[in-house]
Amino acid sequence: MGNLLEKLGHFFETHVEKIVLAVAGLLGLWLIVIRVLLSPNVVEFDNKTFSPKAIDDYLVEFAIPVKNRLAGPADGTSAHVRPWDEPVGPDDPVREGITGDLQEGFLGLFAGPLQHVSSAFYPPLPRHGSGEALERREYALPVIDDVSDILVGHIRAAAYFPVEELSDENTYENGRHEPNDLDLVTVQGTFNVSLLRDRFYDSFAGEDLPEPWRDEMLAEPVFATVNLQRQKQGEDGAWGPWTDVPRLAIEYRDELMHVITKAEDLPPGGIRIRALELKDEEIRTALLQPPAYDIASAHEDWFPPSLHDEFLDTRKKEIAYEKREERRAEKKSHTSERSNIREQRRAQGGMVGMGGQGGMMAGGRGGGADLGGMYGGAEGGTRRTRSRSRSGNATFEPGGGTGQPRSRGGSRSGRGGRGESELYYEMMGETPGRTARRNQPTVDDVYAKLDELMLSPFKEFSDIDEVTFWAHDDRLEPGRTYRYRVRIGVLNPVAGTGNVRDADIARADDVILWSPFSDKTSRVYVPYRLRFFAKAYKAATDQVTVEVAKFDMGYWNMETFSVKPGERIGREMEVEEEEDPLVRGMDPARARMMRMEAQMYENPFGLNLEPQTIDYSTGAVLVGAARVDGWTQGAHLRAQISHDMLYTTDGVLIERAPIASASWTDDIASSYRRIKLLEREPREDFRGFGTSPAKRGRTGRGGSGDRGGLYGEMMMGY
Predict the structure, then answer these.
(1) CB 188 within 8 A of CB 468
(2) What is the Cα Rg of the chain in Å?
(3) In the listed set 33, 63, 81, which residue is the last one of a domain according to the structure?
(4) How many structural domains are present in the chain?
(5) Each residue of 557-579: pLDDT tens digit?
(6) Do 156 and 29 belong to one domain?
(7) Which residue has the higher pLDDT, 458 or 124?
(8) Mean pLDDT of the residues in the chain
(9) Which of 44-58, 471-485, 619-633 has the lowest mean pLDDT?
(10) 74 and 34 in one domain?
(11) Which of 7, 505, 536, 670 would you label with 562, given CA atoms 20 to 30 Å apart?
(12) Of 81, 101, 131, at which residue does a domain stop?
């Protein structure tokens, strides 16, 4: 018996899936027979019961006498047959149960079958036995509180710009991009969400309302928009009108983000559908914390104004600390190297002495000589490697002031150059000195603070009492000064329904309930991207030496030109690469191969996008130089002769600029010193798109910090 049960169990275990399929097939066949072929669906008509097919045949036969009667002559007793396009009045009994405009008769319903559907928030109200609708609800519209803690910040860097039109299918994240220079202003504020929830609850679900009026859905506030406005300061110092700042060019949801202010402009479905759209978590985050451009510059990243200065300061200290650690490690390495050499020499001398005195080794002194050879010659055996770092600030003084090509200043390797050891640390997510500095603030700590401010799916929005929001402005003119103000808009859940108290009837159709505008921000000056400075004047040749500064691909570049009257100031120049000492004197083909291999090692994603040419054209034409007679400053006055450069940009207005740094104004001198300092910044390769920690988040792929993006993704296999 036991064997039989075991065999049965084995049979069922082996064929259980076939048994299940057979049972399911029989069940499906049974349903088809009884529910389709032998359908129970019947209809009663003319005191008879019909199946779906039989009722069609019966109606055809039933309609034949009616058709014949209509075709025959009138007997004087026939009722009036209303044409399809005859207007139907609102009190006509024939339209019972049909709403909408019937001015074109029943045929007009086919032109717009949904035109009679109301776009109000509520479905048609139930009626009493008398046929009258329920009374109008009188909600008090909530007051929206002020925004607070307004801050403003400006960054300038190279960023990734979309090169094709964005859409739901082709978003900024998955489209094609190219790097370009960006000026971006961000305005940040704080809003009390907890107070907003309390006010909405009191207005739409509070205990003071009648029980039928209380609606938990209406009591949940929905953010509709963040309205950023700006003023631009004119040449005369006066401020222009306030204008709305459009959303960033990387926003692809234009239709959804479009601000609708009146209920009559709402799409079908009205305020209810609008609320469902804006309540989406992704949309709410895009409204309150819109993403910025993906920053390509390795030395910069986007942060809200409350954290950006801290990021720059921490990064500066971190780089300085790491450089000190590198120098300390290099010094320690040299000391250890010299110590090893001394030890080796002492060992060699001891062995030579032993061979000469006791003859313990064959060959006497020769034994010591052989031992010394084994240890590696007179300097020991320590092998030094040369790092491939193109650093320094090589410049070319143009002969005759003609603006010849020169090597681009700065270091391509960044932070003083990266050797193999630093690359190894970067690939491992560390840098020299990072381990010893764990107790000091790092850039990673600033990114962690950014995570605390940002909304995410891991944070329940209903638990947030205060939300930090921001808005961006990327449509800026270099050389202009701006100031901003901002307000928040919350959706009016009863817009267009008329269900408001008489005191708020003027706002009954307003789709958005606005907070007051914030205070004006401090001024934001957007520096020029192109400047030129008159350095010297040669009266003998009537030439003016002009130094042109151009911000290009995230860095300042400077070039010197000698210009004569009638010539344009500046032109396009080729960028010459500094010769790498490792390939000097090598066969050109071999040298090119070594450079490619080195670049692949230092920059595996091929993001070395240094421009091959830089356009220094200013659009200005030199008119000449004018003598200026003046007096020296101080107790003893002496005559002083200087010159002004005369130039024009439009051929009509002639402008002046002082020649020589001694004659420059404080503003010109300050700008020149600042640009000169920035021009010496180490040149670093661009980040890959999406590798910025600020964009990917701390839990994103590829590591963390202001390094680790490129090499972290390489190690993770992305």
Answers:
(1) yes
(2) 41
(3) 81
(4) 4
(5) 999 999 999 999 999 988 766 55
(6) no
(7) 458
(8) 76
(9) 44-58
(10) yes
(11) 670
(12) 81
Predicted local confidence at residue 577, as pLDDT: 60
Parent domain of 502: 148-289+454-525
Same domain for 55 and 152? no
Judge if 87 and 173 occupy the same domain. no
Contact 480, 154 (CB under 8 A): no
Distance (Å, whole) CA 179 – CA 608: 11
- Is it the case that residue 291 has pLDDT exceeding 80? yes
Distance from CA of residue 230 to its chain's centroid?
21
Q: Is the dihedral of CA 505, 506, 510, 514 positive or negative?
A: negative
Judge whether residue 189 has pLDDT over 70: yes
Compute the CA torsion angle 559, 562, 563, 568 (nearest 10 deg): -20
**In-domain check, residue 63:** yes
C-alpha separations of 659 from 468, 627, 663 in Å = 49, 10, 6
* Residue 496: both structure tokens together: 């267009």
Which tokens go with 596? 């490619």
Do 498 and 553 lie in one domain? The reply is: no
Residues 245 and 283 in one domain: yes
The token pair at 325 is 């650690």
pLDDT exceeds 80 at position 664: yes
**Is the pLDDT at 588 greater than 70, yes or no?**
no
Cβ atoms of 627 and 639 within 8 Å: the answer is: no
Q: What percent of the chain has pLDDT over 70?
A: 68
Residues 535 and 669 occupy one common structural domain: yes
Whether the Cβ atoms of residue 50 and residue 43 lie closer than 8 Å to each other? yes
Q: Which tokens belong to 219?
A: 């009591």
pLDDT band at 611 (very low <50, low <70, confident <90, very high): low
Q: In degrees, to the nearest 5, what angle opens at C-alpha 545 toward C-alphas 578 and 542?
A: 140
